[in-house]
Amino acid sequence: MRRIFSLFLIPFLVVLLLISCNAANEYNENELNSGKNIDEEPIFIDEKNIHALNLEKKLSNWCVAFYKLRNNQAVWIKKSKPLTDNTKHFFNYVNNDTLLNIPFHYFESNLDLTNSTKEEKEIVTLLRIASFLHLQHNPLFDLKKMNLHPSERVSPHVVLEFINSFAADRSWIEHLITYMAPNANVIRFHFALNHFFAKHPVEQNVNAVKPEDLKDSIAVHKFIVQQLYHRNFISDTLLKHKETIEKLKEFQSYNGLNEDGKLGKNTLSVLMSSNHARYIKGMITLDKLRRLPDSLIQSKFIAINIPSFLLRFYNKGERISTNRVILGTQSNQTPIFSATMKYIVVNPYWNVPYSIASQEILPHLKKDSTYLMRNHYTVLNRDKETVNPDSIDWNKYSVSTFPFFIRQEPGRLNSLGHVKIMFPNQHSIYIHDTPSRYLFNRDARTFSHGCIRTQDPFDLSKHILALEEHAYKDSLPALRKRDKETYLILKDTFPVHVVYHTAGISDSTHQIRFYKDVYNLEAPLYSLFK
């Protein structure tokens, strides 16, 4: 985890500098280098100090129990002295919902501390720490009921352990975010969100009106500049055309789009979307990442993220390769699931699913007797015996009475391409090649019947075989030329996870990226914050 954190140290320092100008977000570089702030001569906090805040009874009882564990000794504040800058920065961080990446006003201890005493500031900060630590191993969202779980806290004993385990070579902020974190990706993603929203603060929803004529270059330029300004991506609206295009490309990159500098429908959509909407996506993704154990992330696995249309192959925490993928259409959505990778098939047959054969191929057969031959299809009966297609009157059959199986022969016309990568599952989903290469250039790639077409399946297969020193690790080019179906059984099986995260981190820039909720699976969660 320390290695992952160090990757974000430099951008995080930039975050600290930017936020220090904002009283609501105040913390800076000194905080990262601070030692212990526990004074050798602390003051004491008793029930009188706690009750002065007029907290709910359960919150007051929690505070009383915590300070009793410390013999009523304060944690950070000094006797007869104002708060140190480092303590102020930490308090401001903990008492800022955006920096904790939680819904606004979610914690019960969300109080205005502007004119509070330093004792009251410490008490409220401890309550928020208790609530934040509870989130590290308990979901924020109920993904079945599509609502928020109520805010809860860890016990006073857990917070005391958190305080006592602080090391002088770390900052309190780093200690808080890493303590009890279920995996390294949670830490990495948390600070990436901090970095993004320090540069591009969450703005009030700005009603955007798109240009009536998208061919009007002046109106389009004005619209792009206004939206980038409203989304806090630029500070000056007097941009020249070339500067606007460069800023638009940067904005497209942050939103997981091709950086072409053009106002297409996907770019138009994200320009009209607020940073608050992006913040919600970040919260939901962070909550999903907390559900993955560190032991899983440190193993070998493949993760396919549906909204980003990307497949990543990892081994022992290191990314081995990244591939663009094509996924299921709205009516044939690729499901979210996990399975075990077991074998690779070079030059596979395609056993056409019955639904595709009866609903899509049969109409072609009724119109064109050469369709099967031209596409290298074979007809099989229920006993899987080959049938001469010329002996069949296709007009006799309908979707509900179609009695045959269709199989496509290996070769360049095969819909699976030259390789499929198999992780058997109840959905009959697998990774495969495709002859339709041009579709990988699209932003949104929902064109399959649910299976996962990948841009470079042979490169992925090569990495899989090489990592386990497979006997055929160097034979893929020769096997491909044979036009004969060949099975390569893996001795080192590993998990494949199809996930749904509408935010992520770029492989190249290590900065946050946001993606379209392509199947509208998170829409009910977005509606909670309207």
From TrEMBL:
Q: Which GO terms describe its molecular function?
A: carboxypeptidase activity; transferase activity
Q: Could you name the domain of life of the organism this protein comes from?
A: Bacteria
Signal sequence span is: none
Q: Which residues form the active site?
A: H432 (proton donor/acceptor), C451 (nucleophile)
Q: Which Pfam family, giving just one, matches this sequence?
A: PG_binding_1
For this entry, list what GO says about its biological process.
cell wall organization; peptidoglycan biosynthetic process; regulation of cell shape
In this chain the L,D-TPase catalytic domain maps to 300-479
Q: In which pathway does it act?
A: Cell wall biogenesis; peptidoglycan biosynthesis
| Gene3D superfamilies, per database record | L,D-transpeptidase catalytic domain-like
Keyword terms: Cell shape, Cell wall biogenesis/degradation, Peptidoglycan synthesis, Transferase
InterPro entries associated with the record? LD-transpeptidase_YkuD-like, LD_TPept_cat_dom, Peptidoglycan-bd-like, PGBD-like_sf, Transpep_catalytic_dom
List, alphabetically, the PANTHER family matched. BLR7131 PROTEIN, L,D-TRANSPEPTIDASE HI_1667-RELATED
Family stated for the protein in its record? Belongs to the YkuD family.
Q: What is this protein called?
A: L,D-TPase catalytic domain-containing protein
